[in-house]
Amino acid sequence: MSRIGLDNPETDPSIDESPFADLPEPLILPVPTMLDNFQTVNILAPLVRCSKLPFRHLCSLYETHVNTTPMILAEEFSRSQIARTSDFSTSTDERGVYWMEPRYSAVSSGSSIHPEDRVSKSYHVSPAHTRLPPTAEAPTKHSVLVRGALIAQFASPNGKSLADAAELISPYVDGLDLNCGCPQKWAYNEGIGCALLRKPELVRDMVRTVKDRMGWNWPVSIKIRVDPDLQNTDTLVKSALQAGVSHITIHGRTRHQASTEPVDLEAIKFAVECARGEVPTVANGDLWDLEDARKMRETGVKGVMAARGLLANPALFAGYDKTPQHAVEQFVNVSLDYGFIFPLFHRHLAYMLESHFSRAEKTWFNSLSSTVSTVDYLASRGIDFSSSRSTIWDARRGRTVLRI
């Protein structure tokens, strides 16, 4: 899909392209390689109905390096074109380009990244895109230019459906994640999500089935919850390692814990230790600001994943404590460009603006019933999305907090 204005200098002749003219081509790396080689890797969680293309694109403007699709049912996806069209869409420009800081200075030139860790011939390389990094100048002498990644998350009760889905979606994504953490009762009854937490042999066989179909180097990760009996977590992690899992994301709550209960960082640390450094790990749960991210990294994980924190503030990883006005403006732009359906467009804006509205304003905003009425309301409150439609967006410029 062509983009209108965003990150596309060809659409605006007034933009000076010269600062970006000498940029090197960004490295295109598998997610495990990113996690192993760079200090800070930020990830958008697979949000039910919410981590659709327009929202993923928005987050990618604000230092979210890896985006994940909503959970997709592999059986439906593999057998129904209607399901594929409904559940997944992408564009050549949804992945961002970032200056990332290597864990070791030798990585600054890419020299310590083994050639086999780069995108191999078996990986799909997206067509040329127009995305640019937030700044033309590297923040430090060691900074490396890296293209972001997109992971498709699937839920499946068997390996064949998962492999079928992987084969269908592989030209458009950078890997697959198996959902072993959805706590909803319907999912458990279907044998997916948390139903897999105590079926380590099945998880192992499912990962192997996808690897056999797609090739051993094709990234397949799992996302789990911790178990009340941590021995079960240990068994699950070790079984996944035996299958060749690429990385593991750990949500620090059990299947029965609500999101209102605090995340268990010690349980995350235990799961990290179970992985024994064989694959990188990612922490998830209760990440609302950069301080939460810092605490999560103390568990030993290589990356952090946010869910509700990014819904409330898509610019969280760029250092904003609230949704900045330009994030709202950019979201309106990408949503209009992609043709985002109104219920999700409106829901995302409600999440972003919640901390800025009084109770009466929330009630009024929730009564709006169309994209036009919503855009008109935002314009009446000073949200100027039209003037920013043809600029290279720099997500780091300014610290303006939304004031409405």
UniProtKB/TrEMBL annotation:
Necessary cofactors: FMN
Membrane-spanning segments: none
DUS-like FMN-binding domain sequence ranges: 148-355
Pfam family, one: Dus
Keywords of the record: Flavoprotein, FMN, mRNA processing, Oxidoreductase, tRNA processing
One record GO biological process: mRNA processing
Name the UniProt record assigns to this protein: DUS-like FMN-binding domain-containing protein
InterPro entries listed in its UniProt record: Aldolase_TIM, DUS-like_FMN-bd, tRNA_hU_synthase_CS
Reactions catalysed according to its record: a 5,6-dihydrouridine in mRNA + NAD(+) = a uridine in mRNA + NADH + H(+); a 5,6-dihydrouridine in mRNA + NADP(+) = a uridine in mRNA + NADPH + H(+)
PROSITE patterns, A to Z: UPF0034
SUPFAM superfamilies: FMN-linked oxidoreductases (SSF51395)
Keyword NADP: no
Top-level taxon of origin: Eukaryota
PANTHER family, A to Z: TRNA-DIHYDROURIDINE SYNTHASE (PTHR11082), TRNA-DIHYDROURIDINE(20A_20B) SYNTHASE [NAD(P)+]-LIKE (PTHR11082:SF31)
Gene3D superfamilies per record: Aldolase class I
GO molecular function ontology, one term from the record: tRNA dihydrouridine synthase activity
Keyword Oxidoreductase annotated: yes
